[in-house]
Amino acid sequence: MRNLPASLLNTCLRLVLLLILVILLAYFLLSWSPLDPINAYLGGNVFAVSEAQKALLESQLSLDQDVGERLLHWLGGLLQGDLGYSSLYQQPVSSVIAERLPISLLLIGLSWVCSLVLGYLLGLIAAVYRGGWLDRIIQKFAWLMVCMPSFWLAMLLISLFSIGLSLTPVCCAAPIGMTFTEQSLASMLQHLLLPVVTLTAVSMAPIMLHTREKVIDVLQSDYVQYSLAHGDGLSKVVLFHVIRNSLLPAIILQFATVAELFGGSLIAESVFSFPGIGASIVKAGLASDTGLLMGCTLISALLVFGGNLIASLLSRRFMVEASDA
Protein backbone atom coordinates (compact mmCIF):
# COMPACT_ATOMS: atom_id res chain seq x y z
CA MET A 1 0.00 0.00 0.00
CA ARG A 2 2.95 2.33 0.61
CA ASN A 3 3.92 2.08 -3.04
CA LEU A 4 0.38 2.76 -4.31
CA PRO A 5 1.04 6.34 -5.63
CA ALA A 6 4.18 5.20 -7.44
CA SER A 7 2.32 2.21 -8.86
CA LEU A 8 -0.53 4.40 -10.12
CA LEU A 9 1.94 6.85 -11.69
CA ASN A 10 3.77 3.99 -13.38
CA THR A 11 0.47 2.61 -14.69
CA CYS A 12 -0.59 5.99 -16.09
CA LEU A 13 2.77 6.42 -17.82
CA ARG A 14 2.48 2.96 -19.35
CA LEU A 15 -1.04 3.77 -20.58
CA VAL A 16 0.09 7.06 -22.18
CA LEU A 17 3.10 5.38 -23.82
CA LEU A 18 0.94 2.52 -25.10
CA LEU A 19 -1.64 4.89 -26.58
CA ILE A 20 1.05 6.98 -28.28
CA LEU A 21 2.62 3.89 -29.87
CA VAL A 22 -0.78 2.50 -30.94
CA ILE A 23 -1.82 5.83 -32.48
CA LEU A 24 1.47 6.28 -34.37
CA LEU A 25 1.51 2.69 -35.64
CA ALA A 26 -2.14 2.71 -36.73
CA TYR A 27 -1.89 6.11 -38.41
CA PHE A 28 1.26 5.35 -40.38
CA LEU A 29 0.05 1.88 -41.40
CA LEU A 30 -3.18 3.45 -42.69
CA SER A 31 -1.26 6.14 -44.58
CA TRP A 32 0.74 3.42 -46.35
CA SER A 33 -2.41 1.54 -47.37
CA PRO A 34 -2.68 1.02 -51.16
CA LEU A 35 -6.44 1.74 -51.00
CA ASP A 36 -7.58 5.07 -52.48
CA PRO A 37 -9.71 6.87 -49.84
CA ILE A 38 -11.42 9.02 -52.51
CA ASN A 39 -12.41 5.95 -54.50
CA ALA A 40 -13.67 4.29 -51.29
CA TYR A 41 -15.60 7.43 -50.31
CA LEU A 42 -17.31 7.51 -53.74
CA GLY A 43 -18.10 3.79 -53.61
CA GLY A 44 -15.80 2.97 -56.52
CA ASN A 45 -17.20 5.71 -58.79
CA VAL A 46 -14.07 7.86 -58.81
CA PHE A 47 -14.38 8.44 -62.58
CA ALA A 48 -17.87 9.91 -62.12
CA VAL A 49 -16.47 13.16 -60.69
CA SER A 50 -14.34 15.81 -62.35
CA GLU A 51 -10.78 16.64 -61.32
CA ALA A 52 -12.01 19.87 -59.70
CA GLN A 53 -14.61 17.98 -57.65
CA LYS A 54 -11.99 15.41 -56.69
CA ALA A 55 -9.61 18.15 -55.56
CA LEU A 56 -12.40 19.79 -53.51
CA LEU A 57 -13.21 16.44 -51.88
CA GLU A 58 -9.53 15.87 -51.04
CA SER A 59 -9.43 19.30 -49.40
CA GLN A 60 -12.60 18.61 -47.36
CA LEU A 61 -11.21 15.26 -46.17
CA SER A 62 -7.77 16.83 -45.47
CA LEU A 63 -6.19 14.41 -47.95
CA ASP A 64 -4.25 17.26 -49.58
CA GLN A 65 -2.09 17.45 -46.43
CA ASP A 66 0.89 15.22 -45.71
CA VAL A 67 0.73 12.46 -43.07
CA GLY A 68 2.39 14.54 -40.35
CA GLU A 69 -0.05 17.46 -40.77
CA ARG A 70 -3.06 15.15 -40.72
CA LEU A 71 -1.77 13.39 -37.61
CA LEU A 72 -1.18 16.70 -35.78
CA HIS A 73 -4.64 17.90 -36.85
CA TRP A 74 -6.22 14.68 -35.52
CA LEU A 75 -4.27 14.86 -32.24
CA GLY A 76 -5.31 18.51 -31.81
CA GLY A 77 -8.95 17.49 -32.15
CA LEU A 78 -8.43 14.55 -29.78
CA LEU A 79 -7.11 16.85 -27.05
CA GLN A 80 -10.36 18.84 -27.37
CA GLY A 81 -12.48 15.67 -27.19
CA ASP A 82 -13.15 15.54 -30.94
CA LEU A 83 -12.46 12.13 -32.52
CA GLY A 84 -13.09 13.44 -36.04
CA TYR A 85 -15.68 12.75 -38.72
CA SER A 86 -16.44 9.40 -40.34
CA SER A 87 -16.59 9.63 -44.12
CA LEU A 88 -18.03 6.09 -44.19
CA TYR A 89 -21.04 6.71 -41.91
CA GLN A 90 -21.34 10.47 -42.60
CA GLN A 91 -21.48 11.36 -38.90
CA PRO A 92 -19.06 12.19 -36.06
CA VAL A 93 -16.84 9.32 -34.98
CA SER A 94 -17.96 9.72 -31.37
CA SER A 95 -21.58 9.10 -32.48
CA VAL A 96 -20.60 5.97 -34.41
CA ILE A 97 -18.68 4.60 -31.41
CA ALA A 98 -21.46 5.52 -28.93
CA GLU A 99 -23.96 3.64 -31.10
CA ARG A 100 -21.89 0.48 -31.64
CA LEU A 101 -19.71 0.13 -28.54
CA PRO A 102 -22.51 -1.04 -26.15
CA ILE A 103 -23.38 -3.94 -28.47
CA SER A 104 -19.74 -5.02 -28.66
CA LEU A 105 -19.33 -4.72 -24.89
CA LEU A 106 -22.45 -6.85 -24.39
CA LEU A 107 -21.17 -9.49 -26.82
CA ILE A 108 -17.66 -9.54 -25.34
CA GLY A 109 -18.95 -9.44 -21.75
CA LEU A 110 -21.31 -12.39 -22.21
CA SER A 111 -18.61 -14.37 -23.99
CA TRP A 112 -16.10 -13.50 -21.26
CA VAL A 113 -18.38 -14.77 -18.48
CA CYS A 114 -19.49 -17.91 -20.37
CA SER A 115 -15.94 -18.89 -21.36
CA LEU A 116 -14.72 -18.38 -17.78
CA VAL A 117 -17.52 -20.42 -16.17
CA LEU A 118 -17.56 -23.24 -18.73
CA GLY A 119 -13.77 -23.33 -19.15
CA TYR A 120 -13.20 -23.48 -15.40
CA LEU A 121 -15.84 -26.17 -14.80
CA LEU A 122 -14.57 -28.37 -17.65
CA GLY A 123 -10.96 -27.94 -16.49
CA LEU A 124 -11.99 -28.84 -12.94
CA ILE A 125 -13.83 -31.97 -14.10
CA ALA A 126 -10.88 -33.02 -16.29
CA ALA A 127 -8.46 -32.70 -13.36
CA VAL A 128 -10.69 -34.50 -10.83
CA TYR A 129 -11.16 -37.41 -13.25
CA ARG A 130 -7.58 -37.27 -14.57
CA GLY A 131 -6.73 -40.13 -16.92
CA GLY A 132 -10.37 -41.12 -17.42
CA TRP A 133 -12.53 -40.89 -20.52
CA LEU A 134 -13.97 -37.53 -19.40
CA ASP A 135 -10.46 -36.08 -19.09
CA ARG A 136 -9.46 -37.33 -22.53
CA ILE A 137 -12.61 -35.96 -24.20
CA ILE A 138 -12.26 -32.55 -22.53
CA GLN A 139 -8.57 -32.28 -23.45
CA LYS A 140 -9.23 -33.21 -27.09
CA PHE A 141 -12.09 -30.70 -27.23
CA ALA A 142 -9.80 -27.99 -25.81
CA TRP A 143 -7.05 -28.67 -28.34
CA LEU A 144 -9.63 -28.73 -31.14
CA MET A 145 -10.93 -25.29 -30.09
CA VAL A 146 -7.38 -23.92 -29.87
CA CYS A 147 -6.72 -24.96 -33.47
CA MET A 148 -10.11 -23.92 -34.89
CA PRO A 149 -10.36 -20.45 -36.53
CA SER A 150 -13.29 -18.44 -35.16
CA PHE A 151 -14.58 -17.50 -38.63
CA TRP A 152 -14.73 -21.17 -39.67
CA LEU A 153 -16.61 -22.14 -36.50
CA ALA A 154 -19.01 -19.21 -37.03
CA MET A 155 -19.79 -20.30 -40.59
CA LEU A 156 -20.23 -23.90 -39.42
CA LEU A 157 -22.76 -22.81 -36.77
CA ILE A 158 -24.64 -20.64 -39.28
CA SER A 159 -24.78 -23.52 -41.75
CA LEU A 160 -26.06 -25.96 -39.11
CA PHE A 161 -28.39 -23.94 -36.85
CA SER A 162 -29.51 -21.08 -39.10
CA ILE A 163 -29.70 -22.63 -42.57
CA GLY A 164 -30.05 -26.34 -41.84
CA LEU A 165 -32.31 -26.34 -38.75
CA SER A 166 -33.70 -22.75 -39.01
CA LEU A 167 -33.38 -22.32 -35.24
CA THR A 168 -31.41 -19.05 -35.17
CA PRO A 169 -31.18 -15.93 -37.37
CA VAL A 170 -28.64 -16.05 -40.20
CA CYS A 171 -27.18 -12.66 -39.34
CA CYS A 172 -27.51 -9.28 -37.68
CA ALA A 173 -28.28 -8.14 -34.16
CA ALA A 174 -32.02 -7.57 -34.75
CA PRO A 175 -34.75 -8.28 -37.32
CA ILE A 176 -34.63 -6.12 -40.48
CA GLY A 177 -36.06 -2.66 -39.86
CA MET A 178 -35.49 -2.75 -36.08
CA THR A 179 -32.65 -1.64 -33.84
CA PHE A 180 -31.16 -3.88 -31.17
CA THR A 181 -33.09 -2.26 -28.31
CA GLU A 182 -36.45 -2.23 -30.16
CA GLN A 183 -36.77 -6.03 -30.23
CA SER A 184 -38.01 -8.32 -27.46
CA LEU A 185 -35.69 -10.00 -24.95
CA ALA A 186 -36.26 -13.39 -26.59
CA SER A 187 -35.26 -11.95 -29.96
CA MET A 188 -32.16 -10.36 -28.42
CA LEU A 189 -31.05 -13.70 -26.97
CA GLN A 190 -31.77 -15.45 -30.26
CA HIS A 191 -29.58 -13.00 -32.19
CA LEU A 192 -26.81 -13.11 -29.57
CA LEU A 193 -26.72 -16.90 -29.28
CA LEU A 194 -24.44 -17.92 -32.16
CA PRO A 195 -21.92 -15.02 -31.83
CA VAL A 196 -21.61 -15.69 -28.08
CA VAL A 197 -21.25 -19.45 -28.63
CA THR A 198 -18.53 -18.83 -31.24
CA LEU A 199 -16.50 -16.48 -29.05
CA THR A 200 -17.01 -18.66 -25.97
CA ALA A 201 -15.89 -21.84 -27.71
CA VAL A 202 -12.67 -20.39 -29.13
CA SER A 203 -11.70 -18.47 -25.98
CA MET A 204 -12.37 -21.01 -23.20
CA ALA A 205 -9.72 -23.55 -24.23
CA PRO A 206 -6.81 -21.78 -22.42
CA ILE A 207 -8.92 -21.61 -19.24
CA MET A 208 -9.74 -25.33 -19.48
CA LEU A 209 -6.12 -26.41 -19.94
CA HIS A 210 -4.75 -23.99 -17.32
CA THR A 211 -7.39 -24.95 -14.73
CA ARG A 212 -6.74 -28.66 -15.29
CA GLU A 213 -3.02 -28.27 -14.55
CA LYS A 214 -3.62 -25.98 -11.56
CA VAL A 215 -6.23 -28.28 -10.00
CA ILE A 216 -3.94 -31.30 -10.44
CA ASP A 217 -1.20 -29.39 -8.56
CA VAL A 218 -3.64 -28.56 -5.75
CA LEU A 219 -4.90 -32.16 -5.51
CA GLN A 220 -1.30 -33.37 -5.16
CA SER A 221 -0.45 -30.80 -2.47
CA ASP A 222 0.34 -31.85 1.11
CA TYR A 223 -2.67 -30.14 2.70
CA VAL A 224 -5.10 -31.90 0.32
CA GLN A 225 -3.43 -35.27 0.95
CA TYR A 226 -3.62 -34.56 4.68
CA SER A 227 -7.31 -33.70 4.38
CA LEU A 228 -8.04 -36.90 2.40
CA ALA A 229 -6.07 -38.97 4.91
CA HIS A 230 -8.34 -37.71 7.70
CA GLY A 231 -11.45 -38.93 5.92
CA ASP A 232 -12.65 -35.83 4.10
CA GLY A 233 -14.56 -36.69 0.94
CA LEU A 234 -13.53 -35.55 -2.54
CA SER A 235 -16.48 -33.15 -2.82
CA LYS A 236 -15.48 -31.42 0.44
CA VAL A 237 -11.85 -31.21 -0.65
CA VAL A 238 -12.85 -29.69 -4.01
CA LEU A 239 -15.21 -27.21 -2.35
CA PHE A 240 -12.91 -26.02 0.44
CA HIS A 241 -9.42 -26.44 -1.03
CA VAL A 242 -9.39 -26.87 -4.82
CA ILE A 243 -11.80 -24.12 -5.88
CA ARG A 244 -10.36 -21.68 -3.36
CA ASN A 245 -6.82 -22.14 -4.73
CA SER A 246 -7.55 -22.46 -8.44
CA LEU A 247 -10.38 -20.02 -9.23
CA LEU A 248 -8.46 -16.75 -8.83
CA PRO A 249 -5.62 -17.81 -11.22
CA ALA A 250 -8.28 -18.69 -13.80
CA ILE A 251 -9.92 -15.25 -13.40
CA ILE A 252 -6.51 -13.55 -13.78
CA LEU A 253 -5.82 -15.51 -16.96
CA GLN A 254 -9.25 -14.62 -18.31
CA PHE A 255 -8.65 -10.88 -17.78
CA ALA A 256 -5.26 -11.23 -19.50
CA THR A 257 -6.92 -12.72 -22.61
CA VAL A 258 -9.22 -9.74 -23.27
CA ALA A 259 -7.07 -8.88 -26.32
CA GLU A 260 -7.68 -12.32 -27.86
CA LEU A 261 -11.41 -12.06 -27.09
CA PHE A 262 -11.59 -8.62 -28.68
CA GLY A 263 -9.72 -9.90 -31.75
CA GLY A 264 -12.18 -12.77 -32.03
CA SER A 265 -15.10 -10.32 -31.78
CA LEU A 266 -13.83 -8.51 -34.91
CA ILE A 267 -14.17 -11.69 -36.93
CA ALA A 268 -17.42 -12.83 -35.28
CA GLU A 269 -19.09 -9.44 -35.81
CA SER A 270 -18.02 -9.44 -39.46
CA VAL A 271 -19.28 -12.99 -40.12
CA PHE A 272 -22.61 -12.43 -38.30
CA SER A 273 -23.02 -8.84 -39.64
CA PHE A 274 -23.21 -7.67 -36.04
CA PRO A 275 -23.19 -3.84 -35.91
CA GLY A 276 -20.50 -3.56 -33.23
CA ILE A 277 -17.25 -1.69 -33.01
CA GLY A 278 -15.29 -4.69 -34.33
CA ALA A 279 -17.19 -4.75 -37.62
CA SER A 280 -16.78 -0.95 -37.81
CA ILE A 281 -12.98 -1.33 -37.54
CA VAL A 282 -12.98 -3.76 -40.47
CA LYS A 283 -15.23 -1.50 -42.58
CA ALA A 284 -13.18 1.58 -41.70
CA GLY A 285 -9.96 -0.16 -42.73
CA LEU A 286 -11.40 -1.27 -46.08
CA ALA A 287 -12.84 2.22 -46.74
CA SER A 288 -9.69 4.07 -45.59
CA ASP A 289 -11.85 5.97 -43.09
CA THR A 290 -8.97 7.36 -41.03
CA GLY A 291 -11.06 9.14 -38.40
CA LEU A 292 -13.26 6.13 -37.59
CA LEU A 293 -10.37 3.67 -37.64
CA MET A 294 -8.31 5.82 -35.29
CA GLY A 295 -11.24 6.34 -32.91
CA CYS A 296 -12.06 2.61 -32.79
CA THR A 297 -8.38 1.73 -32.40
CA LEU A 298 -8.11 4.12 -29.45
CA ILE A 299 -11.15 2.61 -27.72
CA SER A 300 -9.99 -0.97 -28.33
CA ALA A 301 -6.51 -0.15 -26.95
CA LEU A 302 -8.13 1.22 -23.78
CA LEU A 303 -10.24 -1.96 -23.40
CA VAL A 304 -7.25 -4.24 -23.81
CA PHE A 305 -5.13 -2.14 -21.45
CA GLY A 306 -7.96 -2.19 -18.89
CA GLY A 307 -8.14 -6.00 -19.01
CA ASN A 308 -4.38 -6.39 -18.64
CA LEU A 309 -4.33 -3.85 -15.80
CA ILE A 310 -7.00 -5.75 -13.83
CA ALA A 311 -5.11 -9.02 -14.43
CA SER A 312 -1.88 -7.39 -13.19
CA LEU A 313 -3.53 -6.02 -10.04
CA LEU A 314 -5.22 -9.34 -9.24
CA SER A 315 -1.97 -11.21 -9.87
CA ARG A 316 -0.11 -8.89 -7.49
CA ARG A 317 -2.79 -9.41 -4.85
CA PHE A 318 -2.62 -13.18 -5.36
CA MET A 319 1.17 -13.18 -4.95
CA VAL A 320 0.92 -11.14 -1.72
CA GLU A 321 -1.66 -13.57 -0.29
CA ALA A 322 0.48 -16.56 -1.32
CA SER A 323 3.57 -15.09 0.35
CA ASP A 324 1.63 -14.34 3.56
CA ALA A 325 0.18 -17.87 3.71
TrEMBL record:
The keyword Cell membrane applies. The chain crosses the membrane at residues 12-30, 103-129, 141-168, 188-209, 247-272, 292-314. GO terms for cellular component: plasma membrane. It is a multi-pass membrane protein. Residues 101-315 form the ABC transmembrane type-1 domain. GO terms for biological process: transmembrane transport. InterPro entries: MetI-like (IPR000515), MetI-like_sf (IPR035906). It is found in: Cell membrane. Keywords: Cell membrane, Membrane, Transmembrane, Transmembrane helix, Transport. Belongs to the binding-protein-dependent transport system permease family. OppBC subfamily. This is Binding-protein-dependent transport systems inner membrane component. It comes from Shewanella halifaxensis (strain HAW-EB4).
